[in-house]
Write a structure and sequence with these properties.
about 240 residues; 5 strands; 8 helices; about 15% strand
Length: about 240
């Protein structure tokens, strides 16, 4: 979906200032949110794509005014309510209770199997690669154009590459299409590609160069491009 979360290529947000020796978590509650989110995914409550869509569904002002792990917490709350795990009233009651001077202790449940599963997810990650999927339509060196998509729901195709001309760098294999997986639809695997873009194709003639940007894109985001010409510049009409 098109929203404030898709910040690639947008201006006016100031410079990115890396934090020296940045810690993994800035506050203890962030560690808890991280663990809860992985525990929810580890139990099959929701997929990573469903969590991403939940983040995208945040109010724009809330999204821009909150931190990274606040996004995670908001998405987790939204998913748990949508799945019927908790109700909005139960969440509000717990928040109110925590704000009191003598807050009741947080409930605990020991689950060694789930704990080890979460540790495995942290150590090894999770791959959505699927074997035996359809063969790739494109191959290294093929020129492509990113389709001008404006879906009302989740997509992993960033706005700043839509309509741009690129070249297939390599095919990665077939991976679960997040556009469907985010909404709990039947799983579909599609070929995914590393696509190389010239910086000037994305940012215009004032872009620093020669530089290239590589973006991983699913096959349904792409269409063949004719050699020569540019994709974003309208063709001039011939004068009679």
């Amino acid at each position: 979906m098109d929203g404030v979360h898709d910040l690639g290529g947008m201006q006016g947000f100031g410079k990115v200032t890396p934090e020296p020796a940045e810690p993994v978590f800035h506050h203890p509650w962030e560690r808890i949110v991280f663990g809860m989110t992985l525990a929810a995914m580890g139990q099959g409550i929701a997929s990573i794509d469903q969590f991403r869509y939940a983040i995208e569904s945040m109010d724009p002002a809330h999204y821009l005014g909150s931190s990274y792990y606040e996004h995670w917490l908001s998405a987790l709350e939204r998913v748990l309510v949508a799945k019927g795990i908790v109700t909005a009233d139960e969440l509000r009651a717990r928040i109110d209770a925590e704000s009191r001077p003598e807050a009741p202790p947080a409930p605990e449940r020991q689950d060694p199997t789930l704990t080890e599963g979460v540790r495995g997810m942290v150590r090894q990650g999770y791959s959505s690669r699927r074997e035996g999927g359809p063969g790739p339509r494109f191959h290294a060196g093929d020129p492509v154009i990113v389709r001008r998509l404006h879906p009302p729901t989740h997509t992993r195709c960033p706005r700043y590459v839509r309509g741009a001309r690129g070249v297939i760098e390599r095919a990665w294999g077939s991976f679960v299409l997040p556009d469907r997986n985010a909404h709990g639809l039947s799983e579909v695997a599609e070929p995914c590609y590393s696509v190389r873009f010239d910086a000037r194709e994305l940012w215009g003639p004032d872009a620093e160069g020669p530089e290239h940007i590589y973006v991983d894109l699913w096959e349904s985001y792409l269409e063949p491009a004719r050699t020569g010409g540019t994709s974003r510049s309208p063709r001039r009409r011939k004068q009679p």
